[in-house]
């Protein structure tokens, strides 16, 4: 059964760490029939509420949420925007950091709020607002000062160039497909790799050192076959399948350029990175020019985010410090594109100090 990923709203308030406490909730997740716009459908709700309950926490609080699956689907919960420092077991994406919670089972998510405030939920622009949004967001700056710098990595240890966009898979023999042609079906890929979810959680495989047969660590750092990304698409739009990850050392300074393509039409892809905040140091339309565009990067006061829109037929450059050990999902936030494979994952190895290591898994971690 396909996993259902429920996103939860977390409101984080600023307060002295000395006042930190444990906040506990129980989420009973079930299906419920609702009627909207003269039509009825079954939806997934938490505690019978739609929208679901709000989790309120303060800086330093330990959040404990017992999730009981009373629906007929496998499911997990992702706490959007919470960094999950060393607590990847609570991040939520099924088969990435945990196996899903099966019907009739429960799982207790535990994580500490560290260095975060705000209402952690994305508001995405309309699909036809790319030009306005890009012009507006390009002017945004952080509140960095000389005394309190933004902390943008000035030197880079690892550089990556990812193409993000659509593609195709051949239709199965004697199959019926609704793709761009009668003999193909829609797919999506990062660097031409359409991500395939494993049957064992990636974080568990990484932690136990049993990755063989689950994933490989050879995700391409650059496109395997460069082309005019925003020009006339190539004739061959097929993508490859794989569960391929990037492995980073603890503390690596990473620069990632995400380049949108025009294959099957150019569109903006909102990409979300789990486990980290990143700095948006540059963006533009057309093909990224590695000889000229980096000179225009803002390395002083860029905005810090965990989700960014790759402009339609354009690119965006981000930098972040790999200071959170574990396995971290990165994906387009358009659900249909995620289902087509527009996603990948990063492995961040443990550091040398005790506070730089992934914590052990909880005893009630769901089994696949």
Helices and strands, with pairings:
Elements: E1 3-8, E2 10-13, E3 22-36, E4 39-46, E5 55-58, E6 62-69, E7 74-79, E8 106-112, E9 118-120, H1 130-137, E10 158-170, E11 184-190, E12 193-195, H2 202-208, E13 240-242, E14 246-248, E15 253-260, E16 269-273, E17 278-285, E18 304-305, E19 307-310, E20 314-321, E21 326-332, H3 335-340, E22 343-348
Parallel strand pairs: 1-7, 2-5, 3-6, 10-15, 12-13, 14-22
Antiparallel strand pairs: 2-9, 3-4, 6-8, 10-11, 15-20, 16-19, 16-21, 17-18, 17-20, 21-22
Organism: Aegilops tauschii
Main location: secreted
Subcellular location: Secreted
Describe the overall structure.
With 368 residues, the chain is mainly beta. The chain folds into 2 domains: 3-119, Cupredoxins -  blue copper proteins (Immunoglobulin-like, Sandwich), CATH 2.60.40; 125-355, Cupredoxins -  blue copper proteins (Immunoglobulin-like, Sandwich). Helices cover 6% and strands 38% of the residues. The protein has 3 helices and 22 strands. A 6-stranded mixed sheet has the order 11-10-15-20-17-18. Strands 14-22-21-16-19 form a 5-stranded mixed sheet. The longest helix is centred in the middle third of the chain and has 8 residues, at 130-137. The N and C termini lie close together (12 Å).
